Amino acid sequence: MAVPIAENVYWVGAVDWDVRHFHGYSYHTHRGTSYNAYLIVDERIALVDTVMRGFEEEMLRRIAEVVDPARIDYVVANHGEPDHSGAIPAVMALAPQATLVHSKRAAESLGKYLPDGWKRQIVGTGDTLPLGRKTLAFLEAPMLHWPDSMFTYIPEDRLLLPNDAFGQHLASAERFADEVDPAVLWDEARKYFANILTPFSKLILRKIEEVQQMGLEIATIAPSHGVIWRENPVQIVEQYVRWARGEARARALVVYETMWGSTAEMAHAVAEGIASAGVEVRVLPVPQTDHTTVVGELLDAKGIVLGSPTHNRRMLLNIAALVEDLVGLRPVDKIGAAFGSHGWSGGAVPLLEKGLKEAGIEVVQEGLALAWRPTPQERTQAVAWGWTFGERVMEALK
Ligand code: FEO
């Protein structure tokens, strides 16, 4: 069903209950997702964003509950990524007179996906599109999530449509944040920020400041994934500020891969040591724990220690893939260290340290490399090494 979210404004998107991988296999969508499109019915009719290809019929059915899709005058593409623009051709096929509205940069991202021949209007910050009683106002938001991204704002409803920003990969029958389990909501909002928006943290802080300086009144934030923030929407904005600043608590992750169990033994001892320093610790073996979860857990942790045995003088493949993910994401203001066991020759620990540094994570103590299986004395050494890391976490939070 089309769901009213303001007077004559309707959610007409699609719920993807089945998807478990997004952006290729880089994001594990544990609870599915939604592609949110919004229909504004006025003297002129606008559709802000569409859905992923394959979900066109679901969206068009919802639009048709409100108006004949052939009457749409404007299709606004806030962002060119195919999860939001994939159904534009289906809409334009029914409403060929409609004007496609997007940012200047979206001409590049949409260019090779969409045919020529439609009416187009390029908009930027400060531009408005009067629909009758309502107005669409545009605000460019480069890198939230792509250079082409922009927000659409309806001042008459104090309604912000920020596309990817403030979203969650969460499929639900409910459409509003206040209707879903808060633990589920914040878990998904956190994973989403950590895995998608972390590299753009500085830009997020600047954009939020810009919106505040513009004095935009916001009663509702309706993102293009997940549920809509209608009660106290400032809560997600304030949370974004904390995440983008890298605010963390006395928490550390011990993330490791093991071959014959020795690095796992070390990981458990290290975790014991960290906890004895008064730091909350999470022990996350990979690949049993997927990258999306690890990165989400890291968002409000201050520290991360990575462990891997040495195999062919390298680290194991799943921890290597996690390191690659971290290098791309560049978590904000974290500290780290590395450990691992080895047999005939070492090599994994310095590679883990190199990866931490490339990810912008400060390596705060010498790595712990042990040969073969830890002896009882070496186990004690690993506990002490963990305690030292826990102390570093506490110091870094002062
Ligand atoms: Fe939901 Fe950047 O697309």
State the main characteristics.
single chain; 398 residues; alpha/beta; Metallo-beta-lactamase, Chain A; Rossmann fold; 2 domains; 7-stranded mixed beta sheet; 6-stranded parallel beta sheet; 12 helices; 22 strands; 35% helix; 23% strand; binds MU-OXO-diiron
Walk me through what this model shows.
There is one protein chain. The protein has 398 residues and is of the alpha/beta class. It folds into two domains: 3-245, 4-Layer Sandwich (Metallo-beta-lactamase, Chain A), CATH 3.60.15; 252-396, Flavodoxin domain (Rossmann fold, 3-Layer(aba) Sandwich). The protein has helices spanning 56-66, 82-85, 88-94, 106-111, 182-197, 201-214, 234-245, 262-276, 291-298, 317-329, 348-358, 376-396, and strands at 3-6, 9-11, 14-16, 21-22, 27-28, 33-35, 38-41, 45-48, 74-77, 99-102, 119-122, 128-130, 135-140, 150-154, 159-161, 220-221, 249-256, 280-285, 301-307, 335-342, 362-363, 368-371. The protein has a seven-stranded mixed beta sheet, with helices on one face. α10 (317-329) packs parallel to α11. The chain is elongated. It starts with a strand and ends with a helix. MU-OXO-diiron binds at residues 79, 81, 83-84, 145-146, 164, 224-225.
